[in-house]
Structure formats: C-alpha cells, structure tokens
Design brief:
With about 220 residues, the chain is an alpha/beta fold. It has ten helices and five strands, in the order E-H-E-H-H-H-H-H-E-H-E-H-H-E-H. Helix 1 crosses helix 10 and helix 2 packs across helix 5. The radius of gyration is 17 Å and the shape is globular. The termini are close together. Bound molecules: cytidine-5'-monophosphate. The site of cytidine-5'-monophosphate has 15 residues, from helix 2, helix 5 and helix 9.
C-alpha cells in the first residue's frame, strides 16, 4: 500500500483501551513513515509513579498536580519515559487515577500539542497514541484511529506478556484490573475514552499485528 509522503497526514492519532494493540500500531506507523512517536500513556504513568515515589496519593489533586508540574520536557526528550517501572501495573493503576484529574490533563496537554506541532528530531510528522489524542489533544489530526478488542482478549494478551517477562500473573486478576481501568477511563468527566467522530475503528480481537497495520496503512493511503 503506497502512502504519498508529500500528501500524507502530518499528525496521526491512535486511541483505544489497554491491550488493544494501539501502541504496536502507533510505533509501526511512525517507523514506516519516519515520524516521531509519543506514547501519551507514559506521561500519565510518569505522573502516577512520580506521585507515589514522593509519598503522595495519585487520587489527590494537589499531589498529582505537583508531580505533573515536575515533569521535565528536556528529560522526557532525553529518554526518561524509558524507565522500566513505568510499564508495570502499579504505574498503570496510578496513571488512571491521576488521569481523572482535570488540572493534570491540562498540564500534559501543552506538552502533547507541542510534540505534535514540532516533532523532535526534525521528523516530518508525529504519531500519538493514548485515550484522547484524537478527541482532545489533536482534534485536527489528519488521520485518526480507534483501536479496540474484546476485554477478555486484551486481558489475555496482557497476562501472556507478563508471563513472558517472567512475572507472576493470574488471568482473573488481570481481567478484573483491566475492567476496572476501562470503567475509570471511559466514565470520567474529562476526556473520557471514546472514539473521535472521524476516527477509523479497528477491532483487533481476531487480527494479528500485520493485518492491523495493513488496514491502517490502507486508510492513510486513502486520505493522502
Ligand atoms: O496507555 P496506558 O495503559 O499506558 O495508559 C495508562 C493510563 O493513562 C490509562 O489507563 C489512562 O487512564 C491514562 N491515559 C489517559 N489519556 C491518554 C493516555 C493515557 O487518560 N491520552
């Protein structure tokens, strides 16, 4: 599938719930197009973990906002989001708590918009993935995707990923945590998880990563 680099959308958003495969798709699109990639969930994870590390409560606005303001864009550009603890479930759970606080979202908004408008490394464009990148962060993005899958399938992927990393995991527990996070993310008052009106939805329950990538590329080519 050919995407014309001259007319390809410069900003691409990929939203969806945990374990849907949105990160895999976003990374692959960015690599294919030579664009910069921002996993916006990592920003919320960094705020959640930062709050816990300073002894704060991720559900307490004052604690979470302090941690959000302490995020250093220079350090992020330098790779601070590669901290392995950010991928853990402690960070995930804290992230979904701080993410429900409007002031935290406000602090992170300008960083995300700036990344999309001025992608680092002189990249020609940016791919952002998260929960609200197509609805709130970049409503004018040239291509938007909403990637989803059955919750049992998403929990199974996460469970296998944890086992593959040598961590202990109980499927029923992973499923319960994921359902809890889905409810928190989709029912919160600010920027809830939902597809943008103009997003292309891809259900990955029965598709592998190659098939998802092919569907997405075809959609982008149809826009360029
Ligand atoms: O995608 P990931 O699982 O890393 O996201 C962690 C949490 O961060 C999500 O459960 C969600 O609460 C929050 N988040 C968000 N908006 C985004 C990205 C993530 O609220 N754009």
């Amino acid at each position: 599938m050919n995407v014309n680099p001259a007319t390809a959308p410069r900003v691409i958003t990929v939203d969806g719930p945990a374990g849907s495969g949105k990160g895999t798709l976003a990374r692959r699109l960015a690599r294919h197009l030579g664009y910069a990639h921002l996993d916006t969930g990592k920003l919320y994870r960094a705020v959640g973990l930062g709050t816990l590390r300073s002894g704060g409560d991720p559900a307490a606005p004052a604690d979470a906002v302090t941690a959000a303001k302490a995020l250093d864009p220079g350090a992020i550009a330098g790779g601070s989001l590669e901290d392995p603890e950010l991928t853990g479930d402690r960070a995930a759970s804290a992230a979904s708590k701080v993410a429900a606080i409007p002031e935290v979202r406000e602090v992170l908004l300008s960083f995300q918009r700036d990344f999309a408008a001025n992608p680092p490394g002189d990249a020609a464009g940016a791919v952002l993935d998260g929960r609200d990148t197509g609805t709130v962060v970049c409503p004018d993005a040239g291509a938007k995707f909403y990637v989803t899958a059955r919750v049992e399938e998403r929990a199974d992927r996460r469970h296998k990923e944890l086992l593959g990393r040598g961590e202990t995991s109980i499927y029923a527990r992973v499923l319960a945590d994921m359902k809890e996070r889905d409810v928190r993310d989709s029912t919160r008052a600010v920027a809830p998880l939902k597809p943008a009106d103009d997003a292309r939805t891809i259900d990955t329950s029965d598709l592998d990563a190659d098939a998802v990538f092919a569907v997405a590329l075809e959609h982008i080519a149809s826009l360029s």
